[in-house]
Design brief:
This protein has 291 residues and is mainly α. Helix content is 62%, strand content 0%. Helix 9 crosses helix 10. The chain is flat and about 65 Å long.
Length: 291
């Protein structure tokens, strides 16, 4: 009895908000939104519900804290950006934002595959891992790609994240997550020379593209039959092969374009395709800014 009491005291002593949030993330990763319950937390942490609520308030606040923690790991806070409003240069201090290095450049939307292969989530800090370098003269485009890939990789690693990001953007844009994403995207866009009156629209376009792409991938993962891991090469290859054959089986006179791209769709790589979309948006931003 005395030993049990001492063990319980030690558990209470090490219980903290950080540990509860970390455990919540583990539960979400393992079983999705439905797995994050008070019962699961109390069993995993060997404590009571009162102790958990003492640290996190309620389950909604805990879910928000889990989201904020993952995003904080994915996106280093942009301490400074080199250029002032409307300046097209300004990457002197870009290294502090955790941007992409030279080998992580997409070199145009047609070369997005190379950038997609240049780093994987969790190796050296997602948002700063593209190319693994944080040089003093990173371009704003590279910083934008790094932020976008940080979000993409975080949502790929945590399948529950995309829906929570979308919900916070639409329902609580004043919370901790949305401002951080907009700031991380907005500063390098400003440094690209985007006119001040277009800052919100341009940043929103990029943010919505990122969230749309990550939500689509998360939905596809949830739809995998039989509980198979959604990111296994066999599952993905089988799905793309089925889709490609279905497109080729369509009437070629009615769907000539789909016939032409069926093989491209089967061979595409999701991460590279995502970065190609970022490059297309950036190309439009660059082409439309004042000369």
């Amino acid at each position: 009895m005395v030993m049990r009491t001492r063990q319980s005291q030690r558990r209470r002593q090490v219980l903290s908000r950080e540990r509860i949030v970390e455990t919540a993330i583990e539960l979400l990763d393992a079983g999705g939104e439905g797995a994050l319950t008070v019962r699961a937390l109390t069993e995993r942490l060997s404590t009571g519900a009162g102790a958990i609520y003492h640290h996190v308030g309620n389950m909604n606040e805990l879910g928000q804290a889990a989201t904020e923690t993952v995003i904080a790991d994915a996106l280093p806070w942009p301490v400074a950006s080199g250029g002032g409003a409307g300046e097209s240069g300004g990457a002197e201090e870009a290294g502090e934002t955790g941007g992409a290095g030279e080998s992580g450049k997409a070199e145009g939307s047609g070369r997005a595959g190379k950038a997609g292969e240049s780093g994987k989530a969790g190796e050296s800090g997602r948002a700063g891992e593209v190319g693994g370098s944080r040089g003093p003269r990173e371009r704003p485009e590279d910083r934008i790609r790094a932020v976008a890939l940080g979000l993409y990789d975080a949502a790929t690693e945590h399948s529950w994240l995309a829906s929570r990001l979308a919900a916070q953007l639409t329902r609580e844009p004043w919370g901790a997550v949305t401002p951080r994403i907009f700031e991380s995207m907005g500063r390098p866009l400003r440094d690209l020379g985007v006119p001040r009156g277009d800052w919100f629209t341009t940043t929103s376009t990029l943010v919505h593209y990122v969230l749309g792409a990550t939500s689509q991938n998360a939905q596809a993962a949830d739809d995998v039959p039989g509980g198979a891991p959604p990111d296994t090469e066999e599952v993905r290859a089988a799905f793309l092969d089925t889709a490609s054959r279905a497109w080729r089986d369509l009437d070629p006179e009615e769907y000539p374009f789909l016939h032409d791209i069926a093989d491209q769709m089967r061979a595409h790589e999701d991460r590279a395709q995502f970065l190609a979309g970022i490059d297309l948006i950036l190309a439009g931003v660059t082409a439309s800014r004042p000369r």
